[in-house]
Fold these 2 entries.
Entry 1:
Amino acid sequence: MTSTEDSNPSLELEEKRYEFSGHLLKISTFRGTYLGVSAFVWEPGLVLCRYFENENIDFTGKKVLELGSGTGIVGILAVLLGGDVTLTDKAYVLKQIEYNVVANIPTTSRHRSKVRALAWGNDQGNFSSDFDFILGSDIVYNPPHFPGLLQTLLHLCNTKTTVYMSSNLKAREGAVNFHEELLPKQFNSELIHTSGNNYIYKVTKKAPHDEH
Ligand SMILES: C[S@@+](CC[C@H](N)C(=O)[O-])C[C@H]1O[C@@H](n2cnc3c(N)ncnc32)[C@H](O)[C@@H]1O
Protein backbone atom coordinates (compact mmCIF):
# COMPACT_ATOMS: atom_id res chain seq x y z
CA MET A 1 0.00 0.00 0.00
CA THR A 2 1.40 3.36 -0.90
CA SER A 3 -0.88 6.01 0.52
CA THR A 4 -4.02 6.83 2.45
CA GLU A 5 -6.48 9.58 1.50
CA ASP A 6 -6.94 12.17 4.26
CA SER A 7 -10.66 12.54 3.51
CA ASN A 8 -11.31 8.83 4.06
CA PRO A 9 -8.83 7.27 6.49
CA SER A 10 -10.06 3.71 5.78
CA LEU A 11 -9.29 4.06 2.07
CA GLU A 12 -6.10 2.28 1.09
CA LEU A 13 -4.70 2.96 -2.34
CA GLU A 14 -2.47 0.45 -4.09
CA GLU A 15 -0.58 1.95 -7.01
CA LYS A 16 0.95 0.03 -9.92
CA ARG A 17 2.82 1.48 -12.87
CA TYR A 18 2.49 0.57 -16.55
CA GLU A 19 4.01 1.97 -19.72
CA PHE A 20 2.18 2.13 -23.04
CA SER A 21 2.87 4.23 -26.13
CA GLY A 22 5.51 6.23 -24.23
CA HIS A 23 3.10 7.13 -21.42
CA LEU A 24 3.82 6.08 -17.84
CA LEU A 25 0.48 5.24 -16.20
CA LYS A 26 0.18 5.20 -12.42
CA ILE A 27 -2.98 3.26 -11.70
CA SER A 28 -4.38 3.11 -8.17
CA THR A 29 -6.97 0.70 -6.89
CA PHE A 30 -9.15 1.44 -3.86
CA ARG A 31 -8.46 -1.60 -1.69
CA GLY A 32 -10.15 -0.49 1.53
CA THR A 33 -13.61 -0.32 -0.03
CA TYR A 34 -15.72 -3.01 -1.63
CA LEU A 35 -15.22 -2.52 -5.35
CA GLY A 36 -15.03 -6.23 -6.17
CA VAL A 37 -13.69 -6.93 -9.69
CA SER A 38 -13.32 -3.19 -10.33
CA ALA A 39 -10.42 -2.96 -7.87
CA PHE A 40 -7.99 -4.76 -10.19
CA VAL A 41 -6.30 -4.08 -13.51
CA TRP A 42 -7.28 -7.12 -15.59
CA GLU A 43 -5.17 -8.78 -18.25
CA PRO A 44 -7.58 -8.11 -21.16
CA GLY A 45 -7.22 -4.39 -20.36
CA LEU A 46 -3.43 -4.59 -20.50
CA VAL A 47 -3.60 -6.62 -23.73
CA LEU A 48 -5.87 -3.97 -25.30
CA CYS A 49 -3.50 -1.17 -24.23
CA ARG A 50 -0.54 -3.06 -25.75
CA TYR A 51 -2.55 -3.57 -28.94
CA PHE A 52 -3.15 0.20 -29.20
CA GLU A 53 0.60 0.73 -28.73
CA ASN A 54 1.67 -1.90 -31.29
CA GLU A 55 -0.86 -0.72 -33.88
CA ASN A 56 -0.07 2.98 -33.30
CA ILE A 57 -3.74 3.65 -32.72
CA ASP A 58 -4.47 7.38 -32.75
CA PHE A 59 -7.77 8.57 -31.29
CA THR A 60 -7.17 12.24 -32.10
CA GLY A 61 -10.43 13.96 -32.88
CA LYS A 62 -12.42 10.80 -32.16
CA LYS A 63 -15.36 10.43 -29.79
CA VAL A 64 -14.77 7.38 -27.60
CA LEU A 65 -16.76 5.68 -24.81
CA GLU A 66 -15.42 2.99 -22.51
CA LEU A 67 -17.77 0.49 -20.85
CA GLY A 68 -16.87 -1.06 -17.47
CA SER A 69 -13.74 1.08 -17.05
CA GLY A 70 -12.85 -0.32 -13.59
CA THR A 71 -9.60 1.51 -12.86
CA GLY A 72 -9.90 3.52 -16.08
CA ILE A 73 -6.58 2.33 -17.51
CA VAL A 74 -7.84 1.75 -21.08
CA GLY A 75 -9.91 4.93 -21.29
CA ILE A 76 -7.09 6.99 -19.79
CA LEU A 77 -4.68 5.68 -22.44
CA ALA A 78 -7.28 6.54 -25.10
CA VAL A 79 -7.30 10.17 -23.83
CA LEU A 80 -3.47 10.25 -23.92
CA LEU A 81 -3.72 8.93 -27.51
CA GLY A 82 -5.79 11.97 -28.42
CA GLY A 83 -9.38 10.85 -27.90
CA ASP A 84 -12.35 12.68 -26.45
CA VAL A 85 -13.26 9.91 -24.02
CA THR A 86 -16.20 9.14 -21.74
CA LEU A 87 -15.17 6.56 -19.13
CA THR A 88 -18.14 4.73 -17.65
CA ASP A 89 -18.92 2.14 -15.00
CA LYS A 90 -21.39 1.56 -12.20
CA ALA A 91 -21.81 4.65 -10.00
CA TYR A 92 -19.87 3.26 -7.02
CA VAL A 93 -16.72 2.77 -9.16
CA LEU A 94 -16.52 6.34 -10.46
CA LYS A 95 -14.41 7.79 -7.60
CA GLN A 96 -11.63 5.30 -8.36
CA ILE A 97 -11.74 6.19 -12.08
CA GLU A 98 -11.77 9.93 -11.31
CA TYR A 99 -8.74 9.49 -9.02
CA ASN A 100 -6.79 7.82 -11.83
CA VAL A 101 -7.92 10.37 -14.41
CA VAL A 102 -6.56 13.20 -12.25
CA ALA A 103 -3.33 11.26 -11.55
CA ASN A 104 -2.59 10.51 -15.21
CA ILE A 105 -4.14 13.08 -17.53
CA PRO A 106 -2.46 16.49 -17.63
CA THR A 107 -4.77 19.40 -16.86
CA THR A 108 -4.31 20.65 -20.44
CA SER A 109 -5.96 17.46 -21.79
CA ARG A 110 -8.44 16.75 -19.01
CA HIS A 111 -11.30 18.49 -20.83
CA ARG A 112 -11.17 15.51 -23.21
CA SER A 113 -12.18 13.11 -20.43
CA LYS A 114 -15.54 12.60 -18.76
CA VAL A 115 -16.42 10.05 -16.07
CA ARG A 116 -20.08 9.00 -15.95
CA ALA A 117 -22.30 6.26 -14.53
CA LEU A 118 -23.55 3.73 -17.07
CA ALA A 119 -25.12 0.52 -15.77
CA TRP A 120 -25.79 -1.69 -18.78
CA GLY A 121 -29.42 -2.09 -19.72
CA ASN A 122 -30.43 0.86 -17.51
CA ASP A 123 -28.52 4.04 -18.29
CA GLN A 124 -27.60 3.86 -21.98
CA GLY A 125 -30.51 6.20 -22.86
CA ASN A 126 -28.56 9.00 -21.15
CA PHE A 127 -25.88 8.73 -23.86
CA SER A 128 -25.84 9.60 -27.54
CA SER A 129 -25.31 7.15 -30.41
CA ASP A 130 -22.62 9.07 -32.27
CA PHE A 131 -19.43 7.50 -30.88
CA ASP A 132 -16.54 6.68 -33.22
CA PHE A 133 -15.20 4.03 -30.84
CA ILE A 134 -16.54 1.95 -27.96
CA LEU A 135 -13.97 0.15 -25.78
CA GLY A 136 -14.61 -2.77 -23.45
CA SER A 137 -11.97 -4.86 -21.71
CA ASP A 138 -12.91 -7.84 -19.56
CA ILE A 139 -16.56 -6.87 -19.48
CA VAL A 140 -17.84 -10.25 -20.72
CA TYR A 141 -17.95 -12.52 -17.67
CA ASN A 142 -21.40 -12.50 -16.15
CA PRO A 143 -24.11 -14.13 -18.34
CA PRO A 144 -27.11 -12.49 -16.56
CA HIS A 145 -25.66 -9.11 -17.64
CA PHE A 146 -25.24 -10.06 -21.32
CA PRO A 147 -28.73 -8.89 -22.45
CA GLY A 148 -28.17 -5.46 -20.84
CA LEU A 149 -24.67 -5.23 -22.32
CA LEU A 150 -26.00 -6.05 -25.81
CA GLN A 151 -28.85 -3.54 -25.38
CA THR A 152 -26.27 -0.91 -24.38
CA LEU A 153 -24.00 -1.66 -27.35
CA LEU A 154 -26.97 -1.51 -29.73
CA HIS A 155 -27.93 1.91 -28.37
CA LEU A 156 -24.42 3.43 -28.33
CA CYS A 157 -23.35 2.22 -31.79
CA ASN A 158 -24.27 3.41 -35.22
CA THR A 159 -23.06 1.44 -38.26
CA LYS A 160 -19.84 3.56 -38.41
CA THR A 161 -18.86 2.92 -34.77
CA THR A 162 -15.91 0.59 -34.15
CA VAL A 163 -16.04 -1.45 -30.95
CA TYR A 164 -12.86 -2.95 -29.53
CA MET A 165 -13.64 -5.73 -27.05
CA SER A 166 -10.91 -7.63 -25.22
CA SER A 167 -12.04 -10.75 -23.36
CA ASN A 168 -10.51 -13.71 -21.58
CA LEU A 169 -12.23 -16.58 -23.36
CA LYS A 170 -10.92 -19.37 -21.16
CA ALA A 171 -11.39 -17.90 -17.68
CA ARG A 172 -14.68 -16.07 -18.07
CA GLU A 173 -18.01 -17.83 -17.89
CA GLY A 174 -20.09 -17.42 -21.02
CA ALA A 175 -17.45 -15.45 -22.94
CA VAL A 176 -17.26 -17.94 -25.84
CA ASN A 177 -21.04 -18.00 -26.14
CA PHE A 178 -21.21 -14.19 -26.04
CA HIS A 179 -18.58 -13.66 -28.74
CA GLU A 180 -19.47 -16.58 -31.01
CA GLU A 181 -23.28 -16.74 -30.68
CA LEU A 182 -24.94 -13.75 -29.02
CA LEU A 183 -22.97 -10.77 -30.35
CA PRO A 184 -22.85 -11.92 -34.02
CA LYS A 185 -26.67 -11.88 -34.21
CA GLN A 186 -26.64 -8.08 -34.43
CA PHE A 187 -22.97 -7.19 -34.93
CA ASN A 188 -20.17 -8.06 -37.34
CA SER A 189 -17.29 -9.37 -35.25
CA GLU A 190 -13.71 -10.00 -36.34
CA LEU A 191 -11.01 -11.57 -34.17
CA ILE A 192 -8.02 -9.24 -34.66
CA HIS A 193 -5.53 -10.30 -31.97
CA THR A 194 -4.87 -12.99 -29.41
CA SER A 195 -2.48 -13.02 -26.46
CA GLY A 196 -2.69 -16.17 -24.35
CA ASN A 197 -6.35 -16.58 -23.43
CA ASN A 198 -7.14 -12.96 -24.24
CA TYR A 199 -8.92 -12.26 -27.51
CA ILE A 200 -9.47 -8.85 -29.06
CA TYR A 201 -12.45 -8.42 -31.38
CA LYS A 202 -13.22 -5.53 -33.70
CA VAL A 203 -16.99 -5.22 -33.80
CA THR A 204 -19.41 -3.14 -35.86
CA LYS A 205 -23.19 -2.96 -35.80
CA LYS A 206 -24.91 -4.69 -38.70
CA ALA A 207 -26.98 -2.51 -40.98
CA PRO A 208 -30.69 -3.38 -40.41
CA HIS A 209 -30.95 -5.38 -43.69
CA ASP A 210 -27.84 -7.45 -42.73
CA GLU A 211 -29.41 -8.90 -39.56
CA HIS A 212 -30.47 -12.52 -39.59
C1 LIG B 1 -13.46 -7.41 -14.68
S1 LIG B 1 -13.71 -5.70 -14.51
C2 LIG B 1 -12.74 -5.03 -15.85
C3 LIG B 1 -12.25 -3.63 -15.56
C4 LIG B 1 -11.37 -3.01 -16.62
N1 LIG B 1 -12.10 -2.81 -17.86
C5 LIG B 1 -10.11 -3.82 -16.87
O1 LIG B 1 -9.95 -4.38 -17.97
O2 LIG B 1 -9.29 -3.89 -15.95
C6 LIG B 1 -15.38 -5.48 -15.14
C7 LIG B 1 -15.93 -4.07 -14.99
O3 LIG B 1 -17.23 -4.05 -15.58
C8 LIG B 1 -18.12 -3.35 -14.71
N2 LIG B 1 -19.48 -3.89 -14.85
C9 LIG B 1 -19.91 -5.16 -14.59
N3 LIG B 1 -21.23 -5.28 -14.79
C10 LIG B 1 -21.66 -4.05 -15.18
C11 LIG B 1 -22.93 -3.53 -15.52
N4 LIG B 1 -24.03 -4.29 -15.49
N5 LIG B 1 -23.01 -2.22 -15.86
C12 LIG B 1 -21.90 -1.44 -15.89
N6 LIG B 1 -20.65 -1.88 -15.58
C13 LIG B 1 -20.55 -3.17 -15.22
C14 LIG B 1 -17.58 -3.66 -13.31
O4 LIG B 1 -18.03 -2.67 -12.38
C15 LIG B 1 -16.08 -3.64 -13.55
O5 LIG B 1 -15.50 -2.39 -13.34
Entry 2:
Amino acid sequence: MKFIFVFILAVSALVVLHAESNDPFHQPKLKILIITGGHDYDRKPFYEVFNAIPSITFDTLVHPHVNELIASPDIDAYDVLIFYDMGVSILPQHQQAYIDLLNKGKSMIFLHHSLVSYQSWPEFIRIVGGQYHTEPVVVNGDTLNANYEHDVTIPIKVEDKRHPVTKGIRDFEIFDEIYSDVEILPGVKPLLSTTHPKSMRYVAWINHYGNSDVIYIQLGHGQTGLSNPNFRKLLRQAIEWSAVKHKRAN
Ligand SMILES: [Zn+2]
Protein backbone atom coordinates (compact mmCIF):
# COMPACT_ATOMS: atom_id res chain seq x y z
CA MET A 1 0.00 0.00 0.00
CA LYS A 2 2.78 2.37 1.00
CA PHE A 3 4.61 1.51 -2.21
CA ILE A 4 1.56 2.28 -4.32
CA PHE A 5 1.18 5.64 -2.60
CA VAL A 6 4.83 6.56 -3.25
CA PHE A 7 4.47 5.41 -6.86
CA ILE A 8 1.39 7.58 -7.40
CA LEU A 9 3.23 10.51 -5.84
CA ALA A 10 6.21 10.01 -8.14
CA VAL A 11 4.01 9.77 -11.25
CA SER A 12 2.12 12.94 -10.28
CA ALA A 13 5.42 14.78 -9.82
CA LEU A 14 6.56 13.64 -13.28
CA VAL A 15 3.29 14.78 -14.84
CA VAL A 16 3.70 18.22 -13.26
CA LEU A 17 7.33 18.47 -14.40
CA HIS A 18 6.37 17.43 -17.92
CA ALA A 19 3.55 19.96 -18.06
CA GLU A 20 5.89 22.73 -16.90
CA SER A 21 8.57 21.97 -19.45
CA ASN A 22 6.15 21.96 -22.39
CA ASP A 23 3.80 24.72 -21.48
CA PRO A 24 5.09 28.18 -22.44
CA PHE A 25 2.97 29.70 -19.69
CA HIS A 26 5.01 27.79 -17.12
CA GLN A 27 8.44 28.75 -18.45
CA PRO A 28 10.30 30.74 -15.84
CA LYS A 29 9.78 34.41 -16.63
CA LEU A 30 12.67 36.70 -17.46
CA LYS A 31 13.48 39.11 -14.66
CA ILE A 32 13.80 42.65 -15.94
CA LEU A 33 14.97 45.76 -14.11
CA ILE A 34 13.55 49.00 -15.52
CA ILE A 35 15.64 52.04 -14.66
CA THR A 36 14.18 55.55 -14.78
CA GLY A 37 14.76 59.00 -13.31
CA GLY A 38 16.37 62.22 -14.45
CA HIS A 39 13.81 62.81 -17.22
CA ASP A 40 10.01 63.05 -17.26
CA TYR A 41 8.00 60.44 -19.07
CA ASP A 42 4.45 59.28 -19.53
CA ARG A 43 4.21 56.44 -16.99
CA LYS A 44 0.96 54.79 -18.06
CA PRO A 45 1.82 54.04 -21.72
CA PHE A 46 5.41 53.22 -20.74
CA TYR A 47 4.54 50.50 -18.22
CA GLU A 48 1.74 49.19 -20.46
CA VAL A 49 4.48 48.15 -22.88
CA PHE A 50 6.03 45.86 -20.26
CA ASN A 51 2.74 44.65 -18.78
CA ALA A 52 1.86 43.38 -22.27
CA ILE A 53 4.93 41.10 -22.48
CA PRO A 54 3.94 37.68 -21.06
CA SER A 55 7.52 36.34 -20.88
CA ILE A 56 8.76 38.88 -18.30
CA THR A 57 8.33 40.13 -14.78
CA PHE A 58 9.89 43.44 -13.83
CA ASP A 59 11.08 45.58 -10.96
CA THR A 60 11.68 49.31 -11.21
CA LEU A 61 14.57 51.39 -9.96
CA VAL A 62 14.76 55.18 -9.90
CA HIS A 63 17.69 57.61 -9.57
CA PRO A 64 19.46 58.42 -7.28
CA HIS A 65 19.52 54.76 -6.15
CA VAL A 66 20.34 53.27 -9.56
CA ASN A 67 24.10 53.03 -9.66
CA GLU A 68 24.48 51.79 -6.08
CA LEU A 69 22.33 48.79 -6.96
CA ILE A 70 24.13 48.27 -10.26
CA ALA A 71 27.39 48.06 -8.29
CA SER A 72 25.93 45.56 -5.80
CA PRO A 73 25.54 41.76 -6.07
CA ASP A 74 21.73 42.25 -6.09
CA ILE A 75 22.00 43.12 -9.78
CA ASP A 76 22.73 39.45 -10.54
CA ALA A 77 19.04 38.68 -9.95
CA TYR A 78 18.11 40.35 -13.25
CA ASP A 79 18.30 38.90 -16.74
CA VAL A 80 18.03 42.25 -18.54
CA LEU A 81 18.59 45.86 -17.44
CA ILE A 82 16.50 48.41 -19.33
CA PHE A 83 17.54 52.05 -19.13
CA TYR A 84 14.94 54.76 -19.69
CA ASP A 85 16.78 57.19 -17.46
CA MET A 86 18.94 60.25 -17.87
CA GLY A 87 21.80 59.90 -15.44
CA VAL A 88 23.86 63.01 -14.75
CA SER A 89 26.87 62.15 -12.64
CA ILE A 90 28.38 58.77 -11.86
CA LEU A 91 31.08 57.87 -9.33
CA PRO A 92 34.25 56.15 -10.59
CA GLN A 93 33.42 52.92 -8.72
CA HIS A 94 29.98 52.87 -10.31
CA GLN A 95 31.48 53.45 -13.78
CA GLN A 96 33.67 50.42 -13.14
CA ALA A 97 30.61 48.40 -12.09
CA TYR A 98 29.00 48.96 -15.53
CA ILE A 99 32.24 47.95 -17.24
CA ASP A 100 32.65 44.84 -15.06
CA LEU A 101 29.05 43.75 -15.74
CA LEU A 102 29.48 44.22 -19.48
CA ASN A 103 32.78 42.32 -19.43
CA LYS A 104 30.86 39.47 -17.78
CA GLY A 105 28.28 39.69 -20.57
CA LYS A 106 25.37 41.40 -18.77
CA SER A 107 22.36 42.22 -20.92
CA MET A 108 21.63 45.95 -21.20
CA ILE A 109 19.06 47.75 -23.36
CA PHE A 110 19.08 51.55 -23.56
CA LEU A 111 15.94 53.39 -24.66
CA HIS A 112 15.22 56.84 -26.01
CA HIS A 113 16.50 59.65 -23.72
CA SER A 114 19.05 57.39 -21.98
CA LEU A 115 21.23 58.44 -24.96
CA VAL A 116 21.67 61.78 -23.16
CA SER A 117 23.04 60.25 -19.92
CA TYR A 118 26.50 60.79 -18.42
CA GLN A 119 27.81 63.62 -20.61
CA SER A 120 31.10 63.76 -18.72
CA TRP A 121 31.80 60.00 -18.65
CA PRO A 122 33.74 59.31 -21.88
CA GLU A 123 33.23 55.54 -21.68
CA PHE A 124 29.45 55.88 -21.87
CA ILE A 125 29.39 56.44 -25.64
CA ARG A 126 31.60 53.37 -26.12
CA ILE A 127 29.08 51.32 -24.11
CA VAL A 128 25.91 52.51 -25.86
CA GLY A 129 27.46 53.10 -29.28
CA GLY A 130 26.23 56.67 -29.52
CA GLN A 131 25.46 59.77 -27.53
CA TYR A 132 23.26 62.83 -27.72
CA HIS A 133 25.73 65.53 -26.68
CA THR A 134 24.10 68.41 -24.85
CA GLU A 135 26.89 70.76 -25.97
CA PRO A 136 28.15 71.07 -29.58
CA VAL A 137 30.99 68.67 -30.38
CA VAL A 138 33.24 68.30 -33.42
CA VAL A 139 33.32 64.74 -34.80
CA ASN A 140 35.48 64.05 -37.87
CA GLY A 141 35.44 67.73 -38.78
CA ASP A 142 31.65 68.11 -38.46
CA THR A 143 30.10 70.11 -35.66
CA LEU A 144 27.25 68.16 -34.11
CA ASN A 145 24.63 70.33 -32.47
CA ALA A 146 22.16 67.77 -31.17
CA ASN A 147 18.50 68.65 -31.09
CA TYR A 148 15.05 67.04 -30.86
CA GLU A 149 11.57 67.50 -32.30
CA HIS A 150 8.31 66.04 -31.00
CA ASP A 151 5.32 64.70 -32.93
CA VAL A 152 6.98 63.68 -36.15
CA THR A 153 5.82 60.99 -38.57
CA ILE A 154 9.00 58.96 -39.03
CA PRO A 155 9.45 56.43 -41.86
CA ILE A 156 11.38 53.46 -40.48
CA LYS A 157 13.39 50.98 -42.53
CA VAL A 158 14.36 47.63 -41.02
CA GLU A 159 18.07 47.26 -41.81
CA ASP A 160 18.34 43.50 -41.12
CA LYS A 161 15.02 41.71 -41.48
CA ARG A 162 16.47 38.33 -40.46
CA HIS A 163 17.97 39.38 -37.15
CA PRO A 164 16.05 37.90 -34.16
CA VAL A 165 15.43 41.42 -32.79
CA THR A 166 13.78 42.70 -36.00
CA LYS A 167 12.37 39.42 -37.31
CA GLY A 168 8.80 39.70 -38.62
CA ILE A 169 8.87 43.50 -38.61
CA ARG A 170 8.33 45.23 -41.95
CA ASP A 171 9.28 48.82 -42.74
CA PHE A 172 6.80 51.02 -40.90
CA GLU A 173 5.88 54.55 -39.84
CA ILE A 174 5.77 55.79 -36.28
CA PHE A 175 4.58 59.09 -34.77
CA ASP A 176 7.28 59.86 -32.25
CA GLU A 177 10.14 62.17 -31.30
CA ILE A 178 13.26 62.51 -33.43
CA TYR A 179 16.81 63.36 -32.40
CA SER A 180 19.21 65.06 -34.78
CA ASP A 181 22.99 65.50 -34.93
CA VAL A 182 23.65 62.61 -32.57
CA GLU A 183 27.10 61.02 -32.53
CA ILE A 184 26.88 57.34 -33.54
CA LEU A 185 30.05 55.24 -33.44
CA PRO A 186 30.97 53.59 -36.76
CA GLY A 187 31.16 50.09 -35.21
CA VAL A 188 27.46 49.72 -34.37
CA LYS A 189 25.28 47.18 -36.15
CA PRO A 190 22.22 49.11 -37.38
CA LEU A 191 18.80 47.53 -36.79
CA LEU A 192 16.52 50.39 -37.89
CA SER A 193 17.17 53.50 -39.96
CA THR A 194 15.17 56.45 -41.23
CA THR A 195 15.41 58.75 -44.21
CA HIS A 196 13.69 61.58 -42.32
CA PRO A 197 15.92 64.57 -43.13
CA LYS A 198 15.92 65.95 -39.59
CA SER A 199 16.53 62.66 -37.76
CA MET A 200 19.70 60.80 -36.95
CA ARG A 201 20.06 58.08 -39.57
CA TYR A 202 20.05 55.00 -37.32
CA VAL A 203 17.30 54.78 -34.71
CA ALA A 204 18.12 51.33 -33.31
CA TRP A 205 21.37 49.40 -33.21
CA ILE A 206 23.48 46.79 -31.43
CA ASN A 207 26.84 47.79 -30.00
CA HIS A 208 29.34 45.18 -28.88
CA TYR A 209 31.07 46.14 -25.63
CA GLY A 210 33.13 43.78 -23.47
CA ASN A 211 31.25 40.49 -23.75
CA SER A 212 27.86 42.10 -24.23
CA ASP A 213 25.73 43.14 -27.17
CA VAL A 214 24.19 46.36 -25.93
CA ILE A 215 20.99 47.40 -27.71
CA TYR A 216 19.91 51.00 -28.21
CA ILE A 217 16.42 52.00 -29.42
CA GLN A 218 15.82 55.73 -29.95
CA LEU A 219 12.03 55.48 -30.33
CA GLY A 220 9.52 55.50 -27.46
CA HIS A 221 8.93 59.05 -26.27
CA GLY A 222 5.22 58.87 -25.39
CA GLN A 223 1.79 57.37 -26.01
CA THR A 224 1.90 57.15 -29.83
CA GLY A 225 5.40 55.72 -30.07
CA LEU A 226 5.03 53.38 -27.09
CA SER A 227 1.73 51.94 -28.34
CA ASN A 228 3.00 51.38 -31.89
CA PRO A 229 2.82 47.58 -32.45
CA ASN A 230 6.13 47.55 -34.33
CA PHE A 231 7.90 49.34 -31.49
CA ARG A 232 6.40 46.87 -29.04
CA LYS A 233 7.41 43.87 -31.11
CA LEU A 234 10.94 45.24 -31.49
CA LEU A 235 11.33 45.81 -27.76
CA ARG A 236 9.90 42.40 -26.83
CA GLN A 237 12.21 40.66 -29.27
CA ALA A 238 15.14 42.77 -28.06
CA ILE A 239 14.49 41.70 -24.46
CA GLU A 240 14.04 38.02 -25.31
CA TRP A 241 17.08 37.84 -27.64
CA SER A 242 19.27 39.78 -25.24
CA ALA A 243 18.27 37.62 -22.25
CA VAL A 244 19.03 34.37 -24.06
CA LYS A 245 22.24 35.63 -25.62
CA HIS A 246 23.61 36.80 -22.27
CA LYS A 247 22.25 33.98 -20.14
CA ARG A 248 25.65 32.70 -19.08
CA ALA A 249 26.45 36.04 -17.46
CA ASN A 250 23.43 36.04 -15.18
ZN1 LIG B 1 11.55 62.12 -25.42
